[in-house]
Amino acid sequence: MSGTEPSPNSKAMRLSGWGRYTRFDCRVLRCEKMSEFEHAANERNGSTLIARGYGRSYGDAAINDSGFTVLSERLDRILAFDEKTGILTAEPGISLASLLDVFVPRGWMIPVVPGTKFISLGGAVAADIHGKNHHLEGSFSKHLLSFKLTDGMGQTHHCSRDKNPAFFWATVGGMGLTGLISDVQLQLQRIPSAFIEMKTVPARNLSELVDSFTQYEDKHQFSVAWVDCLARGESLGRGILMLGDFAQGHSHAWNPKAPLSVPLEAPNFLLNQLSMGMFNELYYRLPRPEIQIVDADRFFFPLDRISNWNCMYGPRGFIQYQCLLPPGPDGAKGLERIFKTCQQENLPSFFAVLKRFAKAEQKEFATLSFPDEGYTLAIDLPGDEKLVGLCTKLDQIVLEYGGRIYLAKDSMLNADTFAKMYPQAKAWQDVCAKLGSDRAFSSHLAQRLGIRL
Known about the structure:
This protein has 453 residues and is α+β, with helices and mostly antiparallel strands. The protein has 13 helices and 21 strands.
């Protein structure tokens, strides 16, 4: 086998990110055993590889249409767990959903979870995921103890803050481009129950919403805001801030409800400004108690309750644009400009989430990790011929404020803008060269950003 010549263990498959905006014809390798996964780098015969878990990256980060995409979801064993310390070791393909099913009833929680539980443990490392508690717990890497990394030369390295720290930090947030991640060791957290005491605070506009974060965030473990991107004028940026803390005196029962399903690809006209404007108005004005007890699954993963919800955008698909803006008035001004630009281009988001990040953990080595102090806004944008132009304008706004784009969500960023947003990328590339991974691991994202050929 040379280049992308078919392997006996490979097959053709059409892949897309969760947004389904673009689709790629790929050769995939499905690994049934860890030995197959770790040996893939030795057996690539000149082809490049990228690992793929459950395909929940919104764009093209886990797609390699010029080499092989290595499927890891069957590498899902728990290897060890210490009930006294909460230290877990598991294979990279296990989902956060599976881990939560096992450990929440035993009183343990993954310290940082994103908006979906259907991602792989290896993907959580590669994207350095963040959650609703960044202001207290930081990103996933803060709780990551170690992992094994198989590099581009087929050699395996044990990586931690103390052992091979340059490889550790390059891999955290490195989008799978440093090598194949395995044997992930993670520190879990004790929790008093599997329920959240949730407080909701409506805000009439963006200014009130930003002030609410400042007023309430430090008093609660979790905070996130839904934003109505269709609201205009004095209501621009209105939303609902949701605050949460693990509830005392409740059980550890973890029984996620079977999700509803979107069985068919919805027609494009289903989601439009009129229908979503009506929904947003109703949702904003919906009577809700100021404080209520909800199960943690509902609080952390509301969209997981609708299976294949991405099909609601129809055959056009969608992208999720997630950016980081600085704290304070500058960040608020940047958010306002983003909302107005989307409306001016007649492509306002139908779904938007706003969170606040604390200052990121100091790292001595190069990393492409996304979170740092400020506001992070994630907006869903339906597929449209005007998307490229809109995203280019949004990128320039983010650049003006010294911000950046989350690579795990990205579908549109170009190489020049990426280099400006991630000036540490050159040092990161040097680490990849030491691993031989610059020639062995690639993805459509990496090619688009100019960090792989």
